[in-house]
Amino acid sequence: MGSHYLIFGNHPRLSLAEFLTLKPQARPLVETLKAGVIDLPDWQDDVLMAELGGTVKLGDIILESDGLSLKPQDIAKLIVASGQSSVDSQDDQDVIGRSGRSLEFGWTTYGADNNQKKVFERYPIHIKKALKDLGWKVRWVSGKGGESLSPAAVAKCHLTEKPNADFCLIIEKGKVFLGRTTQVQDADAWSLRDYGRPCRDDVNGMLPPKLARIMVNLAHVPKGGTLLDPFCGSGTVLMEAALATSATRIIGSDIDAKQIKDTQDNLDWLDRKNITRPDDKARFQTFIADVKLIAKHLPAKSIDAIVTEGWLGPMLKGRESVLELRKNAAQISQLWAEALKTLRPLLKDKASVVAVFPSFKHGDQIISTLTDLNLSSLGYKLDELPANLRPEELYYERTGQHLRRNIRRLAVS
Questions:
Q1: In this model, does residue 99 exceed pLDDT 80?
Q2: 141 has which bridge partners?
Q3: CA 399 to CA 230: how far, in whole Å?
Q4: pLDDT score, position 344
Q5: Contact (Cβ atoms closer than 8 angstroms) between residue 378 and residue 342
Q6: CA-CA distance, 339 to 378, in Å (whole number)?
Q7: By 3-state DSSP, what share of the chain in percent is helix, strand and coil, each rounded to 5?
Q8: Residue 203 and residue 186: Cα distance in Å, rounded?
Q9: 364-403 pLDDT per residue, tens
């Protein structure tokens, strides 16, 4: 069975929460800042990669060591052994006979301190030499400026196809796990659903598709259930829910008629591009409604999960005073209090709400929209998170931005 690993994107704790929500039976063995080693009995790498929004690489642990006993020559022999097993047919042997034995490999280290980095940063050079000594033509593919080798580079160089290899070295408390990548995130598919869709709203801002996918997975919609986004905008959550869940009904509403039209155009585009199946059309329902009046459109206790990003406040220029930001936060909190109160009767007893609650940065100060919300009086509580994750760790932000998207999962109380 063996152990496996995941390499997370720019928000690793959020990505870990997503994975453990989908796979609660997984047993974390090691957690570093950007990577996790886990034990999971029903590991299906291709299925997992298609489901996850926050994981950029995953694969198998092929060697566990105390660090000092991990030798470049041993890694070279592992590559050769797996390469030979992948060319057993006569046709493959003929190809090697014509072209010579050649391969490319990548190498990225995670979790290492400065001293460990010095030890392992030259390993690729030694592996390359050892492979040449064994009669292979070798190219080491490295990341730009010493950065991690990106999923796009792994895919472009076919490093998941033997005898090629992408190695991830994960270090935690003196233990070293050597992993070989088997799947990488499909950057082109994610980019297409982000920048290729017909309707985008760059003025008001949009929920990134990867974050929408993470939020949908955090909601853990039951099979045959119903998902609602009451602030659907251009439909990003609905798009990702169609691809990631087996929900029977995927509902989007918005007070703005243009947003509903944009949502419908984007959902039709998914169908035209064959990204969704033809029968997925029957799962969608969209309508124009103020969230305060949404109960007129939906029956009580009909919703299994709400996944949404509401209003984030006025567009920020970075020159706002603390007073302005506090005023924005108070306004957003008031809107959320009204929305949560209205939505509560629609939720089933075991329903979840996964939503973005923004906070604003002003120097060292963080001005939150959550502080003014009395969740218990509205019929909610913060849901428990897997492992040792804390709610304040689940956020999404980009460098240079003044807004942080705090992701919270609520349960009904």
A1: no
A2: 106
A3: 29
A4: 98
A5: no
A6: 10
A7: 40, 30, 35
A8: 27
A9: 889 999 877 899 999 999 999 988 899 999 999 988 788 9
Instruction: Please state the domain extents for the chain.
Output: 4-185, 188-412
Q: HSE, CB side, 13 Å, CA atoms: give it for residue 260.
A: 15
Mapping DSSP to helix (H, G, I), strand (E, B) and coil, where does residue 402 land?
Answer: coil
Best CATH choice for the domain 188-412 from the list 2.40.240.50, 3.40.50.2000, 3.40.50.150, 3.60.70.12:
3.40.50.150
pLDDT of residue 400: 79
* Architecture of the 4-185 domain: 2-Layer Sandwich (3.30)
Q: How many CB atoms within 10 Å of residue 197?
A: 22
Q: Where are the beta strands (DSSP E) in 255-402?
A: 284-288, 303-309, 347-362, 365-368, 380-382, 395-396
What pLDDT is attached to residue 88? 43
The length of the chain is 413
Residue 201 has pLDDT above 60, yes or no: yes
Q: Are 170 and 112 in contact (CB under 8 A)?
A: no
- Phi, psi at 88, each rounded to 5°: -80, -25
| Identical fold, 4-185 and 188-412 | no
